[in-house]
Amino acid sequence: MAPCLHKHKASSANATELRPARALLPAAPPVPPTAPTPVAEPPDSLLPFPPEALPELPPGEPEFRCPERVMDLGLSEDHFARPVGLFLASDVQQLRQAIQECKEAILELPEHSEKQKDAVVRLVHLRLKLQELKDPNEDEPNIRVLLEHRFYKEKSKSVKQTCDKCNTIIWGLIQTWYTCTGCYYRCHSKCLNLISKPCVRSKVSHQAEYELSICPEAGLDSQDYRCAECRAPISLRGVPSEARQCDYTGQYYCSHCHWNDLAVIPARVVHNWDFEPRKVSRGSMRYLSLMVSRPVLRLREINPLLFNYVEELVEIRKLRQDILLMKPYFITCREAMAARLLLQLQDRQHFVENDEMYSVQDLLDTHSGRLGCSLAETHTLFAKHIKLDCERCQAKGFVCELCREGDVLFPFDSHTSVCADCSAVFHRDCYYDNSTTCPRCARLTLRKQSLFQEPCPDVDA
Q1: Which domain holds residue 215?
Q2: CATH of the domain at 220
Q3: How many domains does the chain have?
Q4: Does residue 275 sit in the same domain as residue 323?
Q5: Is 346 part of a structural domain of the chain?
Q6: In sequence order, what are the residues at sequence separation of 6 or more whose Cβ sits closer than 8 angstroms to the Cβ of residue 312?
Q7: Which of 77, 152, 318, 387 is such that its CA lies 20 to 30 A from the CA of 351?
C-alpha cells in the first residue's frame, strides 16, 4: 500500500502546481465557517481530470467557461477532453441542457476557429445521442404489409429522407425506416401503425385515369373544414392549421399532407397545352408520378382541336402511323426479329400498338422536343432496314399500277397514298389524278364475281 500512497501524493502535488490557473476566475466571497454552502459538483470519478487541474489559458485567448455538467458530457475545451462520441450522460433532460449550453458556447467562440468546429462536431454527436435515447434501436421485420402498402426495411444510412407521415427527418444512422415498393411512401417504423391512406399503386392499377377538370374546387365547407386526407381541422386563416389547395384534385389539405410539391397537371396540358408546374398534395404527387408513363390519354376524343394548334403533335402522329405500317414487315422478317428492332420502342410499347393513346410523359417530351428527335431516329433506322438492308423486306414493296414507273414504293413513304380497302400503294399524284380509283380493287372485284358466277343450265336435257 505504500507505493500507492506515494503515487497519490505525487498526483496531489502536480495538481497543486496547476492550482494557480484558477486565478483567472473571480474569487468567491468568504463563507462564514458556521454556515458552509454546499457546492454542486459532479463526482471526481466522472471528470476527465481532477477539478484542481484546470489548464491556464494562453494570453489573448477568449475565456470559455464550461459548466461541470457539460464537461461531464465531453464538451470541455481543454487538452484532456475525452474522444468525440464518448458521452457519460444518459438522461434525456441532461442531454437537452447540454445541447443548449453547447449552442451558446458555439455562438460565443470566434467564427471559423478550430474550437468552434470542435464544438459543432460535439453538438452533432449530442443530438444523435439524444435521438438514440428517444428511439431505441429494436429488431424490426424486413417486410411489413399494411393497407395494401408493401413496406421494406431500408438499409441506407442517409439522413436526407423525410417521413411522409410525421413530416420529420429520418435519421438513418439510428432510426429504422421503411419504404413502400408500390408508391415509395417513406416513414419511420414507429409511424407505420398511424398510416390511414391505402397505397396509391392500387388506385393506379384499378382506376388508371386522370382528373381532366382543371382544379375542380368544391370549397372547404364540402370538406367540413378538415383535411381531405387525414381529416385534421384546417382553415384559410391558418388556425388551427393552414389549408393548402391541391391544383390536381381541387381539395384542401393540411401542411402534413401538402408539402407544396410541384407537378405538371394533365388537365391543363390536354386543354391548354400548359406545362407550368403547380402545387399538389403528397398523395396527388405520388399518383401523378406513378401515372406519368401510362398511355391513358386519347387526345382525339379529349381535345381534337389540339392537333390544329400544336405542330409537334402532328409530326409525332405521322411518325407513329408510319411505324405501325412498318410493323408487319418486322413481324415476318427473321433478321428483324433476330435484331429485335421493335425493342427500340420498349419504353413506349403503345407506339407499336396504336397511334391514338398518349401518356403525360409523351406530351412532356413532345413539348421539350426530345420525343420528336428520338422518334425520327427510330423511324430512319426502321426504314433503312426495310428499303436498303433486307432483301426480303424489299421484295414486299409495291409498284404504282397507275403509271408503272419509278422505284419500289412502301406505304410509309411520304409521297405515296395507300388504298384503304386493299392496302395497295400508289404515287400520291397518280392516285388523286385517277379520282382515287384503285385498279387492284377493281381487279379483285371482277375475280370474285367470276368465282361465284354459276354455270348456265343445259337446255337440251
Answers
A1: 210-291
A2: 3.30.40.10
A3: 4
A4: no
A5: yes
A6: 366, 367, 369, 372
A7: 387
Q: What is the pTM of this model?
A: 0.61
Q: Is 411 exposed, middle or buried (0-12, 13-18, 19+ CB in 10 A)?
A: buried
Please give the helix or strand (H or E) that residue 262 lies within, else none. strand 261-263
| Same domain, residue pair 230 and 280 | yes
Phi, psi of 422 (to 5 degrees): -110, 0
**Whether the predicted pLDDT of 84 surpasses 50:** no
- Are 215 and 281 in a shared domain? yes
Whether 248 and 210 have beta carbons less than 8 Å apart is answered as no
**Residue 456 resides in a domain:** no
Domain boundary among 330, 351, 378: 378
- H or E element at residue 201: helix 200-206
Owner of C-alpha cell 402522329: 317
Distance between CA atoms of 386 and 388, rounded to whole angstroms? Answer: 6
Would you state the pLDDT for residue 15?
A: 41
Last residue of a domain, one of 226, 260, 291: 291
Q: Which residues pair with 186 in a beta bridge?
A: 179
End-to-end CA distance of the chain: 150
The answer to whether residues 444 and 405 belong to one domain is yes
What are 357's three cell numbers? Answer: 393513346
* Cell digits of residue 245: 389547395
d(CA 286, CA 203): 11
Q: Please give the Cα distance from 314 to 320 (Å, whole number).
A: 10
Percent of the chain with pLDDT strictly greater than 90: 28
Within this chain, do residues 167 and 218 fall inside the same structural domain, yes or no? no
Q: Tell me which residue of 85, 83, 49, 55 sits closest to 68, measured CA to CA.
A: 49
Compute the average pLDDT of residues 399-415.
84
Q: Is residue 118 part of a domain?
A: no
Q: In this predicted structure, what is the pLDDT of residue 245?
A: 94
Cβ(281)–Cβ(267) below 8 Å? no
Query: How many angstroms separate the CA atoms of 199 and 183, rounded?
Result: 6
Cell numbers standing for residue 151: 413496406
Give the CATH number, domain containing residue 167.
3.30.60
Task: Give SS3 for 153.
Answer: strand
283: in domain:
yes
Instruction: Tell me which residue has cell 417513406.
Output: 186
**Measured distance CA(195)–CA(197) in Å, rounded:** 6
Q: What is the mean pLDDT of residues 211-240?
A: 88
